[in-house]
Amino acid sequence: MTWLIPAIILSFGFAQLFKASQRRGEYAPVVVSANYITLSLALGIYLTFADQLAFSPAIFKVGASIGITFIASMLTMTYALTISGAAPVITAFRLSLLVPVALGIWIWDEPITATQLIGIACAVTALALMTRNKSSAHHLHRSKAFLIILAVFLIQGLGGTCLRWVHYADLDPYRLNVLMIVGATAGLLGFSLILLRRKPIHKKDMYVGISIGLYNAITLSVILTALSVVPGTLYFPVVGCSVVLLDNLFTHIFWKEHLSRPAIAGVAMAVLAIVLVM
Known about the structure:
mainly alpha; about 80% helix
């Protein structure tokens, strides 16, 4: 349980760093790709000096799978935001926690109680209520928009499931090695697509991505450590709700953005959800 608190705090900080980048108008694909390459290089240097640099087919398979889902999720979400309102896209992104929870129970027989099921239902409701505050454009008008938002939900959920896979693949002792492959895969794929699209790569975007990547190396290491000792049925609802809860409170207190009544109700339900799931 101890690892849940730093996982929540670091995940919240990671979200705030990207939000700040978006506010400044930096190009997200470059920032994200630079972030992953930096993560991979930082971990590679650390593992080399610690004499822990090791590879195996399992490390490559799991790491590459996570890297592909991570960069696919980023690209899908970026595209979704261009054809639909922000609120349904962000809601799908947040509610994707249901995928690793459901697959964890189905594939790995993760433990779940009736009280936790009620808590997860409360978490889903809370996330929908709190995310609704982000934008008024919440209604979809085209089937294409619905399908792309469904893709955001599924791909992001698969990314969370693959993170959980590290534990069940008996790779907990090699989680930093896995993360190095994750960063290399996602970063190289991201930059390859940027070059194919002939998009310019600006130094400012690279510097921001590098800074976030150093932070992300710590964040993902802590997340995988938490997932090595905490069931996914506990981790995903608690961390998911807590990060959105902190995001709403931070936005209200520091950015002076008004919380709607649904968002306030969502905050209260998030607290209840966390209590029930734990």
